[in-house]
Design goal:
alpha/beta; seven-stranded mixed sheet; 7 strands; 38% helix
Length: 262
């Protein structure tokens, strides 16, 4: 029996966004001198996001939450060298695709868990070396609780990386039709409409020590919008809304890395 999957949770990005094997991504890309096309930018996003995790001496067990098409889990296992990676993503076509890719590549160290972020609540305390939450945190219900749970399962000295959109003016009406699109189609709950400071506050209140808190907007939105000019009408419309919101000061993109003291 078939069912409708919203775009962010579907396989549509495999068709819309050029990919470079063995990685499949659906992020905004990190556009710099190394990014000649979307496939380069998407991989550069993953590289930039995992710098603080890559430097860990203990690379035993990483959890990749909201891991989508699985490219970041493959990167954690094959490039950074974690001996065990837990891929967590909602049940559906993306997680089925990722599971097949892991098997095809012989990456037995990746375990697939088809669930929402709440699946981490079943994991024991103080066991995880690193947690990755890329380009999906804005979908989470009860973000503060999610971060508290991530703090619990990390080992002392373990690290977490989160990327997330931010809304400096925190008002759906300030974005017009694009604000309605984000909440109703992109499935970003209104409770998550906050500033860049919001997630840093959640992390610190949960006990984390901040390593970095950065505004990545200029590295993502203009390059992504330029790429989308040659894509489908829907993607062009979406990217135009993103660029307008960014240029008017209504939309930002935050990067956060933190460490559990110990």
């Amino acid at each position: 029996m078939s069912f409708f999957e919203p775009y962010p949770f579907s396989l549509a990005p495999l068709k819309d966004f050029p990919q470079r094997q063995p990685y499949s991504f659906s992020n905004f890309g990190f556009w710099n001198s190394e990014s000649a096309n979307y496939a380069d930018a998407a991989l550069e996003f993953c590289k930039q996001a995992t710098v603080d995790i890559s430097s860990l001496k203990n690379k035993e067990y990483a959890v990749d939450v909201g891991a989508g098409l699985g490219g970041s889990s493959i990167f954690l296992a094959s490039e950074i060298g974690f001996s065990q990676v837990r891929y967590i993503n909602l049940k559906g076509s993306q997680s089925d695709f990722a599971e097949t890719e892991f098997q095809r590549l012989g990456l037995d160290q990746i375990t697939v868990q088809k669930t929402s972020w709440e699946g981490i609540q079943d994991l024991p305390s103080n066991q995880i070396s690193a947690i990755l939450v890329l380009d999906c945190f804005y979908h989470f219900h009860d973000q503060a609780k999610a971060i508290r749970e991530m703090f619990r399962i990390l080992k002392p000295g373990g690290r977490i990386v989160i990327t997330d959109v931010a809304f400096p003016k925190v008002a759906e009406t300030s974005l017009g039709w694009f604000g309605s699109f984000l909440s109703q189609i992109a499935l970003i709950p209104s409770s998550n409409w906050g500033t860049l400071q919001k997630n840093e506050d959640y992390l610190v209140q949960s006990g984390f020590r901040m390593l970095r808190s950065e505004d990545w907007s200029k590295h993502l939105f203009p390059g992504f919008a330029q790429f989308c000019k040659s894509q489908s009408f829907t993607l062009r419309l979406f990217s135009e809304g993103i660029l307008k919101a960014y240029e008017s000061g209504n939309l930002q993109y935050g990067f956060y890395s933190a460490e559990k003291p110990g």
